[in-house]
Write a structure and sequence with these properties.
With about 325 residues, the chain is an alpha/beta fold. It is built from ten helices and ten strands. A hairpin with a 4-residue loop joins β6 and β7. α4 runs parallel beside α6 and α6 packs antiparallel against α7. It binds 5'-O-[(R)-(carboxyoxy)(hydroxy)phosphoryl]adenosine and zinc ion.
Length: about 325
């Protein structure tokens, strides 16, 4: 029997729906809420209201694009955690209503596990076990992935996430939110000539708050003598910030690969789109003999395709949930 899953993602500021058939993503519709740029970050109340408006049209479009009828869906996979509670609630409520109306089971999906599963959507796929560096606006972690349902976090950020470091640094440079993609672009025209201390952390964890502070103090000191310092050095500042963030990500990833003796290495999450991180990954692959993987852009940032992928493996394992499931801000 063929298995069709409706997947819903609403954990932050993207409303997304996807249809997955036998582990293949047939459609993946993402509606991003650009109004947050005006506030310099995601405003939870604004996000949940926008999800309410977007969820029905986004799901309808996902069905249209897939060619699958709502009557042929076998289960609904839904992001339950982690994320913004008000945003998660919208998706969970919709998923419950759909499952109730169609008399089909729900599948509870963890957003961070799903980011990793984005690597299994298209060829080439990493073989198990692999290590995954998941870097997004809210999380930064290294996971040891023994199987689709056997994921262990072996390193995590002690403070800010890598995407947050890009976004907060970008804000200091006067760039719009989210600044990660823009910093990536500006850095291509710049030189990483300003050095910022990288944290010395034992084990496989990360820390970005020290970098944030030293970047802030550096700008403050330079602006005191030259009020145009940022405008005149925007490209070099972007390149330097990006270098510091990607360097600390890669040094921990290399440490993890040595520690676990694993050469199958994947990236996931919005920051996996960063071109400098990808170059550094390719350099490390050449040096250490790794096979490397990262999802195409639409599956790096938040999307329901990855939720459906994780849901599919849970379906095969018989991991179903009932109407008692609830959203949770934390894992
Ligand atoms: O995974 P994602 O879409 O949402 C979360 O779950 O957080 O990640 C969004 C984050 C933002 O912080 C954004 O600035 C960052 O990913 N990002 C990038 C790039 N594209 C997105 N950071 C650096 N370089 C990029 N090219
Ligand atoms: Zn995410």
């Amino acid at each position: 029997m063929s298995i069709s899953i409706l997947a819903i993602e609403s954990s932050c500021d993207d409303t997304s729906a996807a249809i997955i058939n036998d582990g293949r993503v047939l459609s993946n519709v993402v509606s991003s809420q650009i109004q947050h740029a005006d506030y310099g970050g995601v405003v939870p109340e604004v996000a949940s209201r926008a999800h309410i408006e977007l969820i029905v049209p986004v799901v309808e479009q996902a069905f249209q694009k897939s060619g699958i009828s709502p009557d042929d869906i076998n289960a609904v996979a839904i992001t339950c955690a982690p994320g913004l509670l008000g945003s998660l609630h919208v998706g969970v409520s919709f998923a419950k209503a759909f499952a109730l109306a169609k008399n089909i089971p729900l599948i509870r999906v963890n957003h961070m596990d799903a980011h990793i599963m984005a690597n299994l959507i298209d060829e080439p796929r990493p073989s198990f076990p692999f290590l995954c560096l998941t870097v997004s606006g809210g999380h930064t972690q290294i996971s040891l992935v023994q199987g689709p349902l056997d994921i262990e976090i072996v390193g995590r950020t002690l403070d800010d996430a890598a995407g947050e470091a890009f976004d907060k640094g970008g804000k200091m440079l006067g760039l719009p939110y989210p600044s990660g993609p823009l910093i990536d672009r500006l850095a291509k025209e710049g030189n990483a000539r300003f050095q910022f201390p990288s944290p010395q952390i034992e084990g496989l964890d990360f820390s970005f708050s020290g970098l944030k502070t030293s970047f802030l103090y550096f700008l403050r000191d330079q602006l005191a003598t030259n009020p145009h310092f940022i405008e005149e050095n925007k490209n070099d500042l972007s390149a330097s910030l990006q270098e510091a963030i990607t360097e600390s990500l890669m040094s921990q990833l290399i440490k993890a690969a040595h520690h676990f003796q694993i050469k199958e290495i994947a990236l996931a999450g919005g920051v996996a789109a960063n071109s400098r991180l990808r170059t550094k990954l390719a350099d490390a692959a050449a040096k250490h003999g790794w096979n490397t993987y990262y999802p195409v852009l639409q599956y790096c940032t938040d999307n329901a395709g990855m939720i459906g992928m994780q849901g599919y493996y849970q379906y095969l394992a018989g991991n179903f949930a009932d109407q008692s499931i609830e959203a949770s801000a934390r894992v």
